[in-house]
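Batch job 17 of 40 flagged for manual review because the log was empty.
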Amino acid sequence: MSEDPSSSQTTSSRQQEKSWLDKVLNAFSAEPKSREELLEIIREAADNKVVNPDELEIIQGALDVADQQVREIQVPRSQMVCINIDDQPADLLPTVIESGHSRFPVVGESTDDIRGILLAKDLLSLILNGTDNFVLENIIRPATIIPESKRLNVLLREFRENRYHMALVIDEYGGISGLVTIEDILEEIVGEIEDETDDDADDAFIRKVADNDYIVKALTPIEDFNEFFGSGFDEDEFDTIGGILMRAFGHLPQRNEVADIDGYQFRVLYADNRQIHLLRLTSPS
């Protein structure tokens, strides 16, 4: 009498399932007395193919997050891309477009003067309603302020429960020291998360937005700038186009300050108290 193939496959499947379950139970048969012992058991489970390397990395990341504080992963103040509360669409849109971020701190007189959070999606109303009656203060969301010492696992829970994705971080003196997002915490668990807005570094320095009109990062190497525009800026004295601009201004410029150099008009789109970050360039026709 011939054996039923489907019955044989079912039996084999059950045996495989039992074998896998036995491995899991055996791996955790010795109760761990500390986190280090738990990690050692999980690593042994990975060595025995009970969990794969990606799963092991996620488990380790989740355990590590419980020991980390916000200060360890925050985006520092000097690297924050902020919008000024008095900005008009012509001022803020290039910054929003170039950065590729979805949320921006909105500040007043200084970075410590936090007014709220701007969601890029809230600017879509400009398409329907125009910019005549635009008031940035009317569309920003409340900002969440947290201390540097907050633990990441606690913050992640608050992000999920309160349904916000960004928090501003203050130091022990009450000044803004940086910001943190839910993505920053998740990357500590699962590794780097990239999306379609994450440009390759070689492609991100110069972006054309209209005829003779460009968005240029201040860190653009002068050699690359000269090659792109056919210009002849000195490549010996400075490494970046930001260095050329600093010499031309003679001081650290503020937003919207303009410098004309060899027929090129540079307008500062974003600068902090340490360096120039982003420029709007009008090139000779």
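Reviewer: the log was empty due to a logging misconfiguration, but the result itself is present. The chain is about 35% helix and 20% strand. Unflagging and moving on to job 18.
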